[in-house]
Design goal:
The protein has 163 residues and is of the alpha+beta class. It has one domain: Roll (PH-domain like). The chain contains 4 helices and 9 strands. The longest helix has 25 residues. Pfam families: bPH_4.
Length: 163
Amino acid sequence: MHFKSSHPREIFFISLCKKTAMKVPSRRDNFFRFLIFGSITLIIIPLIVIYSNEGFSNSFFIASVLLMLIAGFILWMWHSTFYEVKENKIFYQSGPIKGKLPIENIQTIQLNKTALVGLKIGMARKGMIIQSTSHNDLYITPSKANIFLKEILKINPNIQVTI
């Protein structure tokens, strides 16, 4: 939808009509880069070994398809992890894992923590652990954590934030 106007009242009305949403990718740290790309390397090495020993055979074909699917799945999660605040909810996705959390149900957010249990939708350490009445703990690592937190607190200022 595209609006053109130069009148101040119309510009104000248009800005009210637009849906506000904030979408940010996951922050990625070197530890997770090492884990992800180290895993992919460990997937590719067996393919090279099988091919050098057997050449192109049925077992090579089956192994390569399976291992490449695993590598593709890992890369899908690496590149598609994001978080979005819209419609008074936090939407999250990492590969095939999708979900939403009503911001009104959030009780506490712990900053600069790494979750050991719960749903981890993050590609870095020292993220946010979100505790709510409707979900188990949710671990996220937004790239613009301060701005993301401010957007959440605009919707629910009663959230207890701990550092």
